[in-house]
Amino acid sequence: MKKNLPPNPLTSLKAKIAKYLLEDEVIMNWSILNKCILILILGSLVHIIWIIWKSFILLSPNLWNFVHLPLLKLQLKLDILFCCLLILMVFPCAYWHKKRWAQQWLPYLSIGILVLSLCRNGSMIGVLSPATMVSYVSLVTVGLVLFNRKIVYYTLVPVTLFLILSNYLSLQGQISYAPLFNLSTSPYQNKFWVSSMLYFIAPILIICLILFEILLSQWRHREQLIQHLSQIDPLTNTLNRRSIKACLEKLEHKPTKSYALVLIDLDHFKQINDQYGHNKGDETLIQVSEALSQIIRDNDVVGRFGGEEFILILHQSSLAQAENIAERCRQAIQALHLLSNMGDIIKVTASFGVAFSSTETNPQKLLSQADKALYEAKACGRNQVKCYRERLVEAKLY
């Protein structure tokens, strides 16, 4: 006897993470203050990376000649200050996340503090350095994805003006370019400067790439979900009329037309709604769709064609096979166990009209034939299967 093995914790964790990232918590749908919290946390991580770099320089006397040591010490203190400030800003964003005034002003304050700290570090390592440019482009792109454009441009315009002005003043010799470093030659000939740029760029790129991957995965999942919902009837979880029409159009262009259509209409469905309520009517439709889905083959199609009308597309099926499947579906619907709120048995039956394709029959004409067969089934007393048999010999059915 096979024993039930305990669930793998790692697999369970991966499933929870995937569900969180792709389904339940789409980042683009977060509230604006939750997005601010995310940016503040990422900004504090970047500051921690800077603190580690500057602390490493201070603890390595052999590297002191590559930097302006007093300025490095000052910048380390400012990094710690801004890191603490960014972390502290998380608390008001979380505490007042439902307050209208907080939603209006805290995003500007949070992003303003982050951008101010980034501009300060950018001017220290060179406004045209790769690290500064990567940070500039990455933050603008992430900001435009997550936030209202007004908030992004509120910080983008002064930052851009600051970078242009700093670069102009450094070209005029009025301020030092990359004052944190001792650059006697071209920066790109200084191995220490180049390695420092790589150190600054790597975490920013990794963080932004991870964030973009999450956003892209969520966007793709949402697009697939929207596409799925546009094709599915929300109540019965079967194909809707639009999707059925698309399936029939595909069949019209196929070289082989060996298929059958089955139209199904629930008998006296209006009486179920009137006597037991629309909730019981919905429950009836759901159970009928489930019964149909269990009987048809994997390559067949079931859809809701109207209010209480369903349709089956049976691929590569003879008339006899289609009639047999329809009869099994009729029996399954008749055997449904539905109870009213008072405990009364709700009787459910359905009438079926079957039509088989021939080389001269297009899907729309076949649909009309199935409808005629369905009308005959209802005229003969309902709860039965009728097949459209006109021109049966010409179609060479078997």
Summarize the structure.
This protein has about 400 residues and is an alpha+beta fold.
What does this structure look like?
The protein has 398 residues and is α+β, with helices and mostly antiparallel strands. It has 2 domains: 20-229; 241-387, Alpha-Beta Plaits, CATH 3.30.70.270. The protein has 12 helices and 7 strands. α3 runs antiparallel to α4, α9 (269-276) crosses α10 and α10 (278-295) packs antiparallel against α11.
Strand content: 5-15%
Number of domains: 2
Q: Give the N-terminus to C-terminus distance in angstroms.
A: 46 Å
Main sheet makeup = 5 strands, mixed
Q: pLDDT below 50 for ≥5 consecutive residues: which ranges?
A: 1-10, 16-24, 391-398
H/E topology pattern:
HHHHHHHHEHHEEHEEEHE
Mean pLDDT score = 83
Helix content percent band:
55-70%
How many E strands? Answer: 7
The oligomeric state is single chain
List keywords for this structure.
single chain, 398 residues, alpha+beta, Alpha-Beta Plaits, 62% helix, elongated, EC 2.7.7.65
Annotate the secondary structure layout.
Blueprint: H1 9-24, H2 32-58, H3 69-95, H4 100-125, H5 130-146, H6 149-171, H7 191-231, H8 241-252, E1 259-266, H9 269-276, H10 278-295, E2 301-304, E3 309-315, H11 319-334, E4 338-339, E5 345-346, E6 350-356, H12 363-379, E7 385-387
Parallel strand pairs: 6-7
Antiparallel strand pairs: 1-3, 1-6, 2-3, 4-5
